Amino acid sequence: MLRRYYGRNLRTVVGASDAPYGYTVTTWTSGALLIHAQGLPDILQVMLFMIGAVVGYALVSVIAFGGLGSRLKEQPRNSALWGNLHFFSIGFAIGASCLSSHLIQDILAWPTTSFLATVVYLLVLGLEFAAADERTPEE
């Protein structure tokens, strides 16, 4: 009985985890790069890191939806699995994080790094998803 449901449910879990998985990897790696370059953060720097990420997410949300008052509607995707691997979106976000964490040598490195990681990840992920959708034949 378990075998009958496992494959379908595994596909559901992987499909539902695509963007959160990539953003988790992006946030963790950008924070790790920043800690390596700047040292362990105090509470203010942690809060600034969070604020940078939230502002970055809000900016891309406004770009995508035209405003923060828009309603989110679930958009089921039917695209190639390779579009969920996030090589480019995470890679470019890590690159932006590496640059900002090493080039900015004051407290502004914390919100700037998380802002750039978030914005770059989301914008490039949109391109990856678009490419995967474009190359996926309709069923």
Structural key phrases:
139 residues, mainly alpha
Protein architecture, described:
With 139 residues, the protein is mostly helical. It has one domain (17-134). The protein is 73% helix and 0% strand. The chain has five helices and no strands. It is globular. The chain starts with a helix and ends in a 5-residue tail after the last helix. 28% of the residues are buried.
Short précis:
The protein is an all-alpha fold. Helices cover 73% and strands 0% of the residues.
Annotation field: number of helices? 5
Number of domains: 1
Radius of gyration: 17 Å
- The run of helices and strands is HHHHH
Structural class by SSE content: mainly alpha
Q: What is the first-to-last residue Cα distance?
A: 29 Å
> So what's the overall shape?
globular
Question: Which SSEs are present, and which pair or pack?
Answer:
Blueprint (H helix, E strand, L loop, with lengths): L1 H15 L1 H21 L4 H23 L21 H17 L5 H26 L5
Helix pairs in contact: 2-4, 2-5, 3-5, 4-5
